[in-house]
Structures are given as C-alpha cells and as structure tokens.
C-alpha cells in the first residue's frame, strides 16, 4: 500500500536483495555492579515485508533485549552495544543520530509490550494516547487526531469506540488494553511491528483473539512482524519462520513447519517435548533439566551443555558455530545431525 | 544515547555468591556495605564523641558550667574560655559540652520509648488484624492530625512545674511520635506475615508470641531501626525547640535549646553564645540523620 | 468522584473530633484542679474561678464539656475567652492572616526550590550535580529552624543587610527570609521526593512506550513523566501547609512576627490555657482541612482514584 515517508531513510531497499530489517552479529552487554552481563552475543536474523518471524526463548535468553536494541529503547548505560548492525532498508540504525532514530521509532518500526496496563500511561485517556501519534508526528489538530484515534480503535475491534475514546486505561479489560496498544503501534502504518510477548499476560481465549488480530492487521498492511514469545504454542499458526534463542545466541533458525516436524537443536527439541499434548494425556510432562545459564558466568563452550542430553566432550570446550542445514535452516549444535535424526 | 528503559536479563543475579533471602545475611551484607561508606564512618565518629561528651563531660572541660560571674558577661573567647562567656558570665564552652548529656538522654529515651510503644502496637495491630487493627489505626490517624511540635508544646506547657522537665519533654515527644513507628511496623509485619516461612510456622502450630517475636519481628525490624535512627536526630532538634520556647528543659539544667533561648536577647551584638550551642546542635542532628540515611541505604539497596 | 469526596469527608469527621477531644482532654481533664492548671501559679480571684467554671462547664462530665467547646468552635467560631475576657477568636482573627502569609510564602519557596532541585538531580542521576544536591538536602534537613533562623538573620539580615531582620513592616519582602527558614527541612524532603518520584516514573513501562512511540526526550520527560511524578508532590505540598502553620511558632519567635505562633507562645507564657487550646485546635482544623483538600486534588490528578 502507498505510504508517505520522511526522507531520512531510503524508502525502498536500494541494496539488491537487502531484506526490510536485518540484525547482523548484534552484541549487547549490561555493565552492572556485579559485572558485565553479556545479554546478546552475536545475534543475526532478518525480516521481509509481510513476513512473521517468531523469536523464541525463555527469559534471559536475550530475545527482548535484541528487540529493544532494534527499537533503540535500551537504557545506555548500563547497556552497551559493542558490535553489530541493525539495518533497516539498508541503513544501519545504530549509526543514526538520536534525532534520526526518533523519526524511525513509532513511525516506521513500532513495538507493543507484554503488560498493556503498565505500558499505557495511567493519567491520560486512551484517545489522547493514540491521537498523540498523529498530533506529534503528523501535526494534526486535536479534533482530527481524535477522529483518527476512534477509527483506529474500531480497526482493532474495540466495541463502542466512540464512547470509550475518552476512558482511561484502567477502565478497560486486559485484552482491550492490548488492542489499544496495538492501535497506537499501527497508527502510522509502520513497516515493522515488534510484539514482545503480546499475549503472555492474557487469558487463553483472549490470547487467540489478539493473535488473530495481529495476523489480520499484518495481512492488510503487509508489514513485517517480529513476534517475541516463550510459548511455542502461540507461534505455530502465525509465524513463517522461527529463531530460537538461548543464552544470548540464536541456537536454531528454521521455517516454522520444519521446526515442528524435526528440531535440529536439543534445546528446541526439549521445548517441543515440554508442550502438553492431548494425545499424550496421562504421560509425565517432559521438562528440560537444570536452570537457564547465568549470564554473568556463562558455561564454557556451548551455553546449553550443562542441560544437554547430547553432550560430548567438545561441547564443554568449543562454542558451536551456526551450522547451515539447508538454505533456510541452521542450528548451533555440534551434533545437529544426531538431533535431527533422533526425532 | 537512547533514553528509556530495559532491565538486564533476570537470570543475571540468580547465582550470585551472596544469598539475600535470609535475614542474617541481610544484616551482614548491610554491615559490609556500611563500613565502606564515608557517611557512616563520619557519623559514627561524631556520635562516638558526642556519647563520650554526654557520659564524661569533664574529660572535655574542667570548668564548672554553673560557675557564672556577671561582671564578665559576654566576654570574648580567650585561652581559658574557648567560646567566651554568655549573658550571665558563664563559660559557653563548658555549658555547650555539658548540654550534650540532656540532649542525648532525651533523644535516646524518647527514641526507645517510641520504638517500643509504636513497634509493639504496630505488631499487635498487624498480627491480630480485624478490630484491634481498626481501632489502633483510627487512633493513629487522630494523633497524626496534630502537628508534632504543637502537640508536644501543648502537653509540655500543661504539665509544666508538675513533673521533672526532662521527663516531661520525653513524655510529650513520645505521646505525639509513636504513631509513625506504629505505621511502619504495621506495614512491615503485614508484609512479613504473608511470607511462606511465617505461614509455614503458623501451620506447624507456633503460638502468637513465638510467631511475633521469633518470626515476624526479625523480618520487620529493619525499617523500624532506620526510622528510629533518623528520629533520634529529630527528637534532639525537637527538645531544643521546646526548650527555646520555654516549655522544655528548665534552668538550672543545661540544654542547647535553652542556651540559644538565653543568648537570644543579645544575639545581634553578641552572637557567639548562641552560635556555639547552635553548631553543636546542628552537628548532632546531622550525625544521626546521616547515620539513618546510611543505614537505610545499606538495608534497602533498592532505593539507591 | 462524588462518592470518593463524600467518603473522604465522612472519614475526616471522626479524626477531627478525635484530635480536638484529645487536645481538650490533655488540658482540661487532668487529675488535680483544672482551674489551677488553667490559671497557673498566681491564685486566681474567686470571680475568675467562677467565670472559668462557667465557661468550661467544669461541673459537667468531660464529654459534655468538650461538646460545649467544640460546638462553639465549629458552629459559632467561638474559641472561648482569655482571663481578661477577650475572645480568643478575635485574637486569632488578628494573627491568622500573618501566619497564613508566612506559611504560603514558605510553601511557594519550597515548591520552586524543592521541585527544581529534585528535577535537576533526577535528570542528572548519578552525576556530580545529583550527589551535591543530595548532600545539601542532608544539611538542610539537619539544621534545625532554630539554628538556620538565627544564622540567616545574622548573616543576610545584619551583616549583608539584604533582608529585614524582624517584623513584617516591608510587606511580602519581609516574609521571604522567615519563609525560607520555615521551609528549610521541607525543601530538602521535597527535593528528595521529587527526585525519587521522577526517577521511579521514568523507569516505568509507559515511559518506555512513549519512547517507542517516537516521542522526543523533552516530551517523554516533560509530558509523560512529569504529569505522573507530580502526583505525590502535590500531596506532600498540601499536607505540608498544615505542618508549616504549626511549625511557624519558632520562626515567628525568631523574626518577631506577630502571628498565631506568637499568640500561642503568649498563651504559654501567660499560662492562658484558653489561648493555647484555641490556637492548637484552630491549627489542627487547618491541618485536617489541608489534608482533605489534598485528597480531593489527588482525585483530580489521578484518574484511577477518580473512577474508583
């Protein structure tokens, strides 16, 4: 669809096959009193228009930090980005001035968060918060911006939008609040939407509605969607491809169907086996043994080795590179063949 | 730079060597932090000197604070009389030193009384909840509606001449101040009450007094200690204010507030007899408030 | 909103009655002869004793005595009379505006300096300015009014001649120095509160949202942050008005200002308990009223309370 863009960035990818968004060898560290926390260690992934990438991992895996680095909303300090690039239509966002980045945030790359209640400002009406996008970024009058806010609330299917536009966040239910967050995020037709655990805080039935809404909105506008989650169940229906993160690294990259069919990393495998399944009712639920790694004191070699059933001696000494399995798949496991065959 | 907020990954602190969940290590951690804080060291030294001054004033001054000679009133400082003499010709230095005892005694006793009364009632209110809590909490609201210095002034002026003036100051300040400790203790106990180990102890049949003193008190003590330390400084300042207004410590007892009050009339042409006790008073208050600040920072690292 | 207001009003009534009863009881319900306590050491004339007995209904039970007094205060503005038969209410009417002006001056000073320093410290958190501001709040809190009053009077009034030393003859200008002295500790508290409040607000999720929306730092801090951080500050300022009025006793005495504080001290020195009880009761009423106003302002500022 046609969009009016500001001139800070090239509007179409000018570098041949450059995807819409590419994260390349990104490193993020937090310099804390207790020491340097290496939260993200060389993450790369890419996203095309109309594509949905699910980033999967438990808390502390670096999935949210990567997203915040893309948005440029990390607190720096304590966060430091020693290496890496975040290219949006070929331009490295990390090298832009703060002013230029502010022009990208919200307008071209938008983000929604897990807890919509705390993420919405409690003292402003939802209409004010949505219309702010139009007033600040498009210079619209209060009235016009408010009209736009109502339209957006209708678009994210909030009933009686016109009456509710002057209500405050705490007057809405959890699912409705997340819709308001979404309305705010898609207000200016961003090319990329990052959703950080958008349904984690919600009831199961509401979760499905929100996921459906996100999928519909994506289809309508052809935006790229990064869906961050720890829940494999959520992503199966909507994602095109999955990046699994562990200990600040990507351990497996694959199209969504391949991963469900045959995981190529022991961690992914463990995650899949720990999903409750109706057909295996009565059996003991599988759980990955051990604890997530301490980012202050990472295990040597492969970060997953203390918890890994496939561990061999070299897992403790050598960091596994991301082995290419096929054009679209890769796994950071020395024994990915065994894992792939075993499933 | 980018402005907002992202917390480091949660697992970051999970395997730290120090364990923060047991009270014993809370205290040892706090002590470890405290010893390295200049504010703590300075205030501890100041308080040490003040305590010495209160216990053994003759160590600092051999001059009798009550030996006064009108013919040398307002004499400038000299070798034998470091701070000069006041309106009645008494030695300002010696009086300033000897006044420390009353301030410290009043400060410490009031603090202890307030902590014990407010703390006990707060614990009882939080522990028994329901009616006990309602009644006590409403009662504190009533006390809170009377600004501290006014209430103390009212009590002190009413009972003046009927009991010992130092005792009266302590009682006046205690009556008006316990509700603050009450609230802090109550809130802390309510929090502690719902922690698993207390619920477990209760389930195992621990009686009320054992629950309160063995399980709840140690976990609710930190905020009370912090506020008590700060209060000590506040009470010393309040004593000076009451004495200055004529309803606190009475002559022949010596107090910084009383000295300030006495020196007031000739202050503009002879400021020193007022300045010296004023400086001692300020430093004393500062020492305790600084100590309280340091202790709070050490006990509650979140607030840093 | 309406229900909230009514509930707050209803909650204030028992506090008001309880606090005034407490004051009344302390002074008039003591063991011993209340008239002796009332009149002090000088034995009062039989006439005076009679007037006092009449006035305070001393032959009635305490609660009834109290009821006569408080209903007079609340419904007729009658605070009783002094031993010279001057209505205490008239004495207060003459002095209250002065103290109110002093307290309001102090409130303004602390709002400007306290909020200003607090914001500065918060935006420079961890830097040298922040450390210096925090250190100076420690000193502001620690130096009692008693000390800062005399010292500033000597330095700024006498030595430098910048401010009048005493009295209120130079209008609002003569309230500046005493106002600052009175505000002293509160400035420090407000500075710390502002700093903590803004730092905490800037850490919250909705600030991250505002940044993610592409708002610039100015708008994020000034519009999204400040609006929330202000709520506890307004609460503190309102509640502090009552404290400042009460605390004015010492400041008024240092600077020879003829306000209710001076009236109160006169009552104490002359042992005129009707004045003491009257002034303290009036100040407690102001205090409760100020807190009530704060509660209402809270509801205006925070929609979560308004739509309970």
Defining key terms:
heterotrimer; A: 343 residues; alpha/beta; Rossmann fold; eight-stranded mixed sheet; four-stranded antiparallel sheet; C: 308 residues; mainly alpha; MetI-like fold
- Kindly provide the radius of gyration of chain A, computed on alpha-carbon positions and rounded to a whole number of angstroms: 21 Å
Which strand order do you get reading across the main beta sheet of chain A? 6-7-8-3-9-10-12-11
Globally, the shape of chain A reads globular
User: Any idea of the CATH topology of the largest domain in chain C?
Assistant: MetI-like fold
Q: What CATH first level of the largest domain in chain A would be assigned?
A: Alpha Beta
The dominant shape of chain C is flat
Mean pLDDT of chain A: 82
Number of distinct beta strands of chain C:
0
The proportion of strand residues of chain C reads under 5%
Number of helices of chain C: 13
Radius of gyration of chain C: 23 Å
CATH architecture descriptor text of the largest domain in chain C:
Orthogonal Bundle
Roughly what percent helix of chain A? Answer: 25-40%
CATH topological fold name of the largest domain in chain A: Rossmann fold
Poorly predicted residue ranges of chain A: 1-7, 10-14
The topology string of helices and strands of chain A comes to EEEHEEHEHHHHHEHEHEEHHHEEH
Largest sheet of chain C: none
**Integer tally of domains of chain A:** 2
- Percent helix of chain C, as a range, is over 70%
CA distance, first residue to last residue of chain C: 8 Å
- The low-confidence parts of chain C are none
Biased composition (Polar residues) (chain B): 1-10
Membrane topology (chain B): Multi-pass membrane protein
Transmembrane segments (chain B): 39-56, 104-130, 142-159, 165-185, 220-249, 274-295
Domain ABC transmembrane type-1 (chain B): 100-292
């Amino acid at each position: 669809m046609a969009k009016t863009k500001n001139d800070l960035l090239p509007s179409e990818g000018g570098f041949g096959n450059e995807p819409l968004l590419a994260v390349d060898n990104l490193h993020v560290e937090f310099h804390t009193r207790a020491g340097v926390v290496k939260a993200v260690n060389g993450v790369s992934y890419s996203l095309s228009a109309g594509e949905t990438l699910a980033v999967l991992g438990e808390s502390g895996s670096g999935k949210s930090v990567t997203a915040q680095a893309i948005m440029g909303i990390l607190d720096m300090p304590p966060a430091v980005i020693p290496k890496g690039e975040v290219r949006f239509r070929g331009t490295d966002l990390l090298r832009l001035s703060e002013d230029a980045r502010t022009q990208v945030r919200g307008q071209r790359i938008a983000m929604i968060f897990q807890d919509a209640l705390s993420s919405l400002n409690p003292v402003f009406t939802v209409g004010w918060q949505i219309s702010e996008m139009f007033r600040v970024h498009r210079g619209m009058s209060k009235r016009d911006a408010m009209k736009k806010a109502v339209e957006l609330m209708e678009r994210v299917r909030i009933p009686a939008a016109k009456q509710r536009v002057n209500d405050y966040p705490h007057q809405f239910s959890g699912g409705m609040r997340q819709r308001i967050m979404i309305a705010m995020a898609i207000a200016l037709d961003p090319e990329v939407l990052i959703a950080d655990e958008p349904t984690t805080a919600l009831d199961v039935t509401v979760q499905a509605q929100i996921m459906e809404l996100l999928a519909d909105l994506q289809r309508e506008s052809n935006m790229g969607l990064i869906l961050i989650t720890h829940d494999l169940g959520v992503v199966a229906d909507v994602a095109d491809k999955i990046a699994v993160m562990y200990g600040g690294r990507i351990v497996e990259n694959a199209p969504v169907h391949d991963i469900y069919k045959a995981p190529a990393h022991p961690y992914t495998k463990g995650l899949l086996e720990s999903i409750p399944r109706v057909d295996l009712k009565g059996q003991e639920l599988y759980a990955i043994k051990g604890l997530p790694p301490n980012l202050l004191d990472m295990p040597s070699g492969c970060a997953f080795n203390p918890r890994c059933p496939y561990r061999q001696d070299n897992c403790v000494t050598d960091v596994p590179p991301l082995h290419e399995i096929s054009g679209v798949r890769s796994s950071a496991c020395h024994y990915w063949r065994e894992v792939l065959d075993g499933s | 730079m980018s402005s907002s907020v992202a917390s480091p990954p949660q697992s970051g602190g999970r395997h730290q060597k120090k364990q923060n969940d047991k009270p014993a290590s809370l205290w040892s951690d706090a002590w470890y932090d405290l010893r390295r804080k200049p504010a703590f060291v300075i205030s501890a030294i100041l308080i040490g000197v003040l305590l010495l001054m209160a216990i053994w004033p003759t160590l600092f001054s051999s001059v009798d604070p009550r030996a006064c000679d009108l013919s040398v009133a307002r004499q400038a400082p000299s070798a034998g009389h470091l701070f000069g003499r006041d309106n009645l010709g008494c030695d300002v230095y010696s009086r300033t030193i000897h006044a420390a005892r009353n301030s410290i005694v009043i400060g410490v006793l009031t603090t202890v009384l307030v902590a014990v009364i407010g703390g006990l009632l707060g614990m009882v209110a939080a522990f028994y909840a329901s009616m006990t809590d309602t009644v006590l909490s409403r009662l504190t609201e009533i006390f809170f509606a009377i600004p501290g210095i006014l209430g103390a002034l009212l009590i002190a002026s009413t009972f003046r001449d009927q009991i010992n003036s130092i005792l009266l100051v302590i009682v006046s300040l205690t009556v008006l101040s316990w509700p603050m400790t009450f609230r802090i203790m109550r809130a802390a106990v309510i929090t502690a009450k719902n922690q698993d180990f207390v619920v477990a102890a209760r389930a195992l049949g621990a009686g009320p007094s054992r629950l309160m003193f063995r399980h709840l008190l140690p976990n609710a003590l930190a905020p009370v200690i912090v506020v008590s330390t700060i209060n000590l400084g506040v009470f010393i300042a309040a004593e000076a204010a009451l004495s200055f207004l004529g309803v606190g410590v009475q002559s022949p007892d010596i107090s910084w507030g009383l000295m300030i009050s006495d020196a007031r009339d000739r202050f503009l042409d002879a400021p020193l007899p007022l300045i010296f006790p004023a400086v001692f008073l300020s430093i004393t208050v500062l020492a305790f408030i600084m100590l309280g600040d340091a202790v709070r920072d050490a006990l509650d690292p979140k607030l840093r | 909103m309406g229900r909230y207001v009514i509930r707050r009003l209803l909650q204030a009534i028992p506090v008001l009655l309880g606090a005034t009863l407490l004051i009344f009881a302390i002074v008039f319900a003591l063991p011993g002869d209340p008239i002796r306590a009332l009149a002090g050491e000088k034995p009062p004339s039989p006439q005076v004793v009679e007037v006092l007995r009449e006035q305070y209904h001393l032959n009635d039970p305490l609660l009834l005595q109290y009821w006569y007094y408080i209903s007079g205060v609340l419904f007729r503005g009658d605070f009783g009379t002094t031993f010279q038969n001057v209505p205490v209410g008239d004495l207060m009417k003459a002095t209250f505006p002065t103290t109110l002006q002093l307290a309001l001056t102090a409130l303004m000073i602390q709002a400007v300096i306290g909020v200003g320093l607090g914001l500065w410290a918060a935006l420079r958190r961890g830097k040298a300015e922040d450390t210096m501001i925090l250190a100076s709040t420690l000193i502001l809190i620690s130096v009692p009014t008693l000390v800062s009053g005399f010292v500033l009077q000597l330095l700024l009034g006498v030595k430098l001649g910048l401010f009048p030393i005493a009295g209120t003859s130079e209008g609002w200008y003569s309230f500046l120095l005493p106002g600052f002295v009175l505000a002293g500790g509160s400035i420090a508290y407000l500075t710390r509160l502002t700093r903590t409040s803004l730092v905490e607000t800037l850490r919250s999720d909705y600030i991250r949202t505002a940044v993610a929306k592409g708002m610039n730092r100015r708008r994020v801090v000034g519009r999204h942050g400040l609006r929330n951080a202000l709520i506890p500050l307004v609460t503190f300022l309102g509640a502090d008005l009552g404290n400042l009025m009460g605390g004015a006793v010492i400041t008024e005495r240092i600077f020879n200002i003829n306000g209710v504080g001076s009236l109160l001290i006169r009552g104490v020195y002359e042992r005129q308990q009707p004045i003491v009880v009257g002034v303290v009761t009036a100040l407690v009423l102001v205090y409760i009223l100020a807190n009530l106003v704060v509660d209402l302002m809270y509801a205006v500022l925070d929609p979560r309370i308004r739509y309970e």
